Every structure is written in structure tokens, then in C-alpha cells.
């Protein structure tokens, strides 16, 4: 919660000592590849959201509602971050806080309805009761027929002091994750007794962000483990918040690379502890740099697209209005350090700097507006990649046969010439082009080429393409399910489609699809996979005329390790503090002969993990590869014996534990 190289060629003249450079040459064109055969997740009707707060006097006004509608906002969250745990909807009060006039629930819903959006409402857990929450559901959906579908139970309750930091109001005697989960379950039962159709979310910690991984005193596990185990079966979605930070544009924009792993870890926790499929909503997000200038716009569009591709169904920017913060100059423009999408017209303490007129959109507003031009409800994200790390590429296909491509040029000073190619899709020659550049005050719309575009520095560009031929295709297959996953095999099964179809099974390799095989049935077993590897696959249907469907929703799974191996390794996260942990590794000799002198090797799965220190051996890291060699006292491992080594691992993002270990070059069983 927040409130507040050009290559320089030279030649030497034969009779002179002066070296004269030739004119600078342009960078080679950047290649962007869009692979329509590599399907990702589908966008829902609650995807693009914002936060509203009862201390904002503009909440629910026509001017704000119209601005949010024009930006394509689908969801509005209320009553605002930590205020949610002190706010009482019946009296429109927040003891200890400020509630602006005309910000009650009905005023909020009037703005929601005017914008054509829907509500995400946070029930007061901190100082409220299950009955108060149930009464709110009754008022909203029975008495007023507002049809509020999504309800959260509290906000950031891990900040109630249980882990040391205390910013969230919580009057319950038991502030542990078990205490929250037990009472949250009572909330869910009381609220669904009034309206069984509502969807209820519980508060989780975001993988790689404090206090993820920490086990508090007396707890049976981490916050997520305990909360999901107790309350998970009774609710419908998990709530995450993400403020990734960053002290520069480059650092802040690099954080979106963490999305895939963060969502992957969250889903694994949900599957393991809740035992059911829960949706994931990211109900607070903001950048750490350039909150009101172009880096914020670029981050917003890149982050929303990345999160939607990973299957997050709702993303809510913090905040509509927030107020002036630390003023700086970013990319040649004044940044007010304001976490709001729209200007509050506030001034700094000495009155030397004031924001623009009330409700003037800041750059991230246009980042959300560009996202809504890129994807709409029902669109499916597909793979897109680029040869230049400064360029981010996202793509989505539409039910009517159109394709959209979002391009983000993160280079603050240089433009890029981009050449686009398409696998599994043939675009018409001309595309509709939306652009938003540094310092712009509106998104410009025109036309251009479907295969070539120049990206201005620090800019957002969306191409909307029409197909060049017929859009007739077989129906898209349903999502495959992975079962019988071993170190080298997996069986994929999917729902049957129309008669006479043949199904192709494709693995995603970035922007390339590798066909694993085809069948006329609805199940396929893949062999010869690599142990300890994460795979994403799709199914595509082909009819007798050769027409090919869109790719199915994806299935992602990770292979295991051999059950029979000369060694076994158990890695335990023994103690975690949010950006580092103690890793304890047991190495067992499962062979028939002693191991005399050994080296254990593994690799970090992500770029933001690093070895800090280690013990019971000699530790080293080169790139992502880590090794530990024996000490004198544990040089020999007898058959059936186990030795222990340990390390401190540091991380600045989702902490994906290494899945594979090799002892003297031999792959071990990971237990």
C-alpha cells in the first residue's frame, strides 16, 4: 500500500597523422518475432484496474469516471489500501483516518457504473467483523443490485506486527497467519451465505517480496503456506501486491522480468497448500521510478501485459490520486513523485513546485490506456520476442482474427527500426498504429506497415493487424492437463473437439514452437524430456482442409529427477529473511561404493540469485553456476551415508530453488 554505438569507423590517411571518422552508421534493425502458435493466457473482463481511496475527494466524480472509462479501466478497487482495515461502510467512517465528503459506497458505485467498470471491494478485516462484511454484500447485491462480484478480505495483514513491521490495523488477538486464515474463512462463509455467486480473495505475500519465505515464531510455515492451507479451500482467488522499486529507469523497467517466476511460484504454493485452482489478482502495483513520467508509462504497459500473459486476472494501479512526493526531473520532464494516475493539484511543502491542474493525466495513465488498446476481454496473449533487450514485445490475438503487438522502447535516447515477422499468422499489409512518446499528452493513432515500424526513444507503440485472408479456423482446443510427470516423460490430456480433427502438440521455446507430435486422440505422452526443466506446451487442432486453430491455453509443468541415481540431494530453505536465506543441503550416497573426494554442482534458476557464503566445504560461483567441494572432514561419503553443507543465498526477486544437482558429474535424485 502506498499513500502518500553507434559503431564509429575510422580510416587513417596515408600521409597524415590525423584519424578521421566516417559518419555514424545506424544500428541494425531490431527483429521482433510473433508466434501465434505459442498461446499464453486469456484476458478477462476485470484485467485493467485502478485503486480508489475514501480520502480522495474526487472519488466517484463524473470527471474522474470519464477519464478512467477513456483509459479502458475495467475494475475499480475500494475503499483504499490500509484504509480498508479501518473503514466502516455503514457509517462511512475510518477512525484514525480521514474520509472525504461524497466518497461513500454509493458514490463509488456511481462512478464505477458511469465508467462501465466493475468493483473490487475490500471487506474490513482489521477492525471489522464477518457480520459487517456480510451486511455489505447484502446491501450491494441484494438491496441495491450492484452485482459486486469480487471481494477481498482485508489488506496486507502480514503487516500487522507479526513479522515485526506494523502498518496494518488488526484488532485480533491472534495476528499470526493461522489467526488471519481462520477468521478470513469465517468471513468467506458469512459473505457467501448472502450471495453464493461472489468471488472472495485472501491476502498472500508476493514471491520474492517481504515477508515471503519467513516463518514467524510459533507458526507452522510461511504466511502463504499457512493461509492457503486453512482458508484456501473456502475462497476463490489469491491477492498479491507488488512495488518492485528501482533507483533508475533501467532498474525499474528490468523488474518485469520477474513476473513469470513470481506467478509460477505463487501457483505452485496454491496447488500444494490450497489443493484447488485459485485465481490470482494483483490488487496493488506501482513503479519505483518515474511515477509521473515516461518510465512509469513504460513500466505500466510492460507489467500489465506480462502479468496478463502469466494469467493474473486483475491488476490494479495504485492509485487514482495520491499527492505530491519528492520532485525530480526524469527524461527532461518534471516528476512529482506522485503515485497517482491523475494530478491532485498539490504543492510541495514550501510551495515552490505545484502539480498541473486537478485530474491532469500523468504518463502512467497513458500506459494503462495503451494496454487497453493492446488487449481486450477475450483476447489471448501469444509469444513475442525481440533481438534487442532494450525492446520489449508482447502480442495478442483476437476472436475476430485481428492481432495486436505492443512494443516498448526502453532506450531513453535512441530510436529503433523494428522489423516484424509472424509465425502462424498472415497480416494484411497495413496496420493501425497507436503511439505514445516521452512528454506526449495523448496517444496518437494512425496507420503504418504491419512488418516495419520506427520506435521513438522511451516510447510505447501498439500495432493492430488485420488478417490477409480467411479467418475460418477450427475451434480452439481446451487447456491440456499434465499428468504422470517424471524426470523424462509427461502425459498431456485435453478435451475432445469436433470429429475428424488432428491435434498437434507444441512446446514453447521462446518465439519458436517445437512440435512434439500429433494425434487424432486427446492424449499424448512425451518422452526424452530433460530432468528438472520447466516446460510450457499448447495443443493446436487441424481439420481435413488443413485449417489450423488458434493455440490452446498453455500448460506449464516441471519434470522431476531420476528415482534411481548414485546420489540424492535434499535442499531445505532453513531460514529466510525476505531477500536471503540459509540453504541446507543433505548429500546422500545412494550407490554401492564410497565416494572419495567430491564436488556438488548446481545452477541458480534466475539472474537475481547469488551465493553469499557457505560452510562445510569450499564454495564458488561462476556466472549462475555454483559448486561446493568437500572439506577434509567430509571427504568420503560411505554408501548410505549423508553429509551436510550449507550456504547463504541472496536474492532480489522470486526465489526459485535449484531443481538439479550433480555429484562428481552424476545427476542426483532431488528429494
TrEMBL record:
Query: From which domain of life does this come?
Result: Bacteria
Q: Name one GO molecular function term.
A: hydrolase activity, hydrolyzing O-glycosyl compounds
What the entry lists under Pfam families is as follows: CBM_2, fn3
Q: Where is the CBM2 domain?
A: 560-671
Which keywords, in A-to-Z order, does the entry hold? Carbohydrate metabolism, Glycosidase, Hydrolase, Polysaccharide degradation, Signal
Which is a GO BP term held by this UniProt record? Answer: polysaccharide catabolic process
Look up the signal peptide feature and give its range: 1-26
> What name is this protein filed under?
Alpha-L-arabinofuranosidase
According to its UniProt entry, this protein's organism is Catellatospora chokoriensis
